[in-house]
Amino acid sequence: MAEKKTFYITTPIYYPSDNLHIGHAYTTVAADAMARFKRLTGYDVWFLTGSDEHGQKIERSARERGQTPKEYVDKIVAGFQHLWRSLNISNNDFIRTTEERHKKVVQQIFQKLYDQGDIYKASYEGWYCTPCEAFWTESRLEEGNCPDCGRPVELLREESYFFKMSKYADRMLKHIEENPDFIQPVSRRNEMVSFIKSGLEDLCVSRTTFNWGIPVPFDPKHVIYVWVDALTNYISALGYGQENDELYRKYWPADIHLVGKDIVRFHTIIWPIILMAAGLPLPKQVVGHGWVLLESGKMSKSRGNVVDPLILIDKYGVDAIRYFLLREMPLGADAYYSEEALVHRINQDLANDFGNLFNRTCAMAYKYFKGHLSEPGRPEGPDGELIDLARGTPGAVEELMERREISNALATILRLVGRANKYLEETAPWALAKDPEKQGRLNTVLYNVAEVLRFATVLISPFMPGLPERAWPLLGLEDKPELHTWESLSWGKLPGGTVLKRGEPLFPRIDPATLGEE
Ligand code: MSP
Questions:
Q1: Of ligand 1's atoms, which has the minimum distance to the CA of residue 271?
Q2: Does residue 495 have a cis bond before it (omega within 30 degrees)?
Q3: First CA to last CA across the chain, in angstroms?
Q4: Is the pTM of this model over 0.85?
Q5: How many Å apart are CA 224 and CA 211, to the nearest integer?
Q6: For position 223, what pLDDT does the model report?
Q7: What is the set of domains in the chain, with CATH numbers?
Q8: What is the C-alpha to C-alpha distance for residues 288 and 187, in angstroms, rounded to an integer?
Q9: Ligand 1 centre and the CA of 420: distance in Å?
C-alpha cells in the first residue's frame, strides 16, 4: 500500500500566565477541526499544542503567589491539559518549553547560529515593554507607548546577543512573494510584506534582566529571548537534531502553523528567518485568524469579563461550543462572542435544522415501518436534486477546508441538512403514509433522508467529534464503521434492512429566557 501523505499542524503554545479563555479555545478547536478533517480524508496527521512557560511575566506571577516558577506553571499547565481533554482536542503531543527535550534543541540552534556568526554580542539601549517582553526603537513607539499593547515602556540598557535578521530580509521577502499561500489570509500577507519593506532590524535574542528561561549555552548570565525559545517548540517536539529524529524527518516542514493575528509577525518573519539561518525548510503555511471579541471590550481578568470555556461546556455541551466557535468565526475576521449568539446558533442550526432532521426522520421511520428501511425505489420528483447536492457536498467541504474556510465548510454541511428538511416538506411522507399504494415511495423518501443524515454525520465529525457516537445508533449504524468513513460517502451505500431508532433529541432547544441563569 502506498504510504499515507503526512500533515503536520500546530497551535501556538500558550502562556501559563493565567487560565485560558474562549479566545484561546477558538485557536485550538480550529486546529483540531483541521487535524481531524485531514485524518478523515486519509492523511497521516501530527497535531501539536503546548505551553510557553518561560519569561519575566511568569517569573513575576509565581513570585506574587509565593511559588517557584515551576510550581506555578505545573498547576496552570495541568489546567490547559484538562481544558483540551474537555474540548475533545486530538493533539498527538503536548510540548512544554520547560522540558529537557525542548531546552536541548533551543540551545543547539542558538549555538549553531552563534558559531556561524549570525548571533553577535552588542550593547543595547531600547524602550522595553515588560508585559510584551519586547524592546522597541524610539521610532516604533506610539505616543511614547508600546505599539503592541499601548502600555508605558521603560528605557533599558543591557549587553545582549543579537540575531542578524537584517541579513536575511531580502530572502524572506522573496519567499513571501514567491509563495502566495505562505501567509493566509491575504490581508495578513500584505501587512507582513510592508513590515519587511519598512526595514528589518537585528533582533535582540537574549536577556539578563531575569533568570526564568533557557540559558545561553556559552554565556549563562543570559537567558534566550522567549520568542526564540517558544518558536523552536515546533521542531523540538519532533526531536529535531536528536538521536531519534524520526518524527522530524517524517513531519517537518509543518503544513500549517495556526496562530492569532497578533503573533503572525513572529511566525512569518522571525521563525522562518531562524530556520533559514539554520538551513532548515520553512513551514508551508501560516494562517492568522481573527480575535474573539466581547461587546464589553477585550477579555481581561481585571475587567472581570473572561469567558471560561469549561462553564460553557458544562452548560451547553462540547459539540455545541465547538460548532458555535467554528461557524461564527470566518477565517481572518474578528467575531463577537455573546451567550445570546451562542444560544441562537444552537437553536437555529443544531436544534431546528440538524437535530430536527434526525428526530423527524427516525420518528417517522419508527411510526411507519418500525424503523426498518428497504432498498430505495427509482428516484423521482425532488430526489435528484437532493442526491446531487449530497454527492457534491464532500468535495465542496474538502475544497473549503483546503482554503481554511472552516465556517463556510460548516455552512455547506448545514445547507445539505436544510435541503433535506425542505425535501421532507416537498415529499410529505405523512401524506404518503395514508395511501397503502405509496408505501414504496414512502420508504424511498425516508431512505434518502437517512442517507443524507449518514453523509452529514461523517462530514461534521471533525468539527463535532462527540456527535457520531450519539448519531450512529439512531441510524442503526453503530456497528458498521465501514459506513462512517470518507470513502463511504458515495450515494446509496446505506444498506436495505437498516433499522432506525427513536431517541432523545440530539440537540434540545434552549429557552433563551434561561440565559444568564447558572
Ligand atoms: N506564547 C505565545 C505564543 C508562542 S507560539 C510559538 C502567545 N501565547 S498567548 O497565550 O498569549 O496566546 C496564544 C494564542 O491565543 C495566540 O494565537 C492569540 O492570538 C490567541 N488568543 C488570545 N486571545 C484571543 C482572543 N480573544 N481571540 C482569539 N484568539 C486569541 O502568544
A1: 6
A2: no
A3: 54
A4: yes
A5: 10
A6: 97
A7: 1-98+290-337 (3.40.50.620), 338-499 (1.10.730.10)
A8: 10
A9: 39
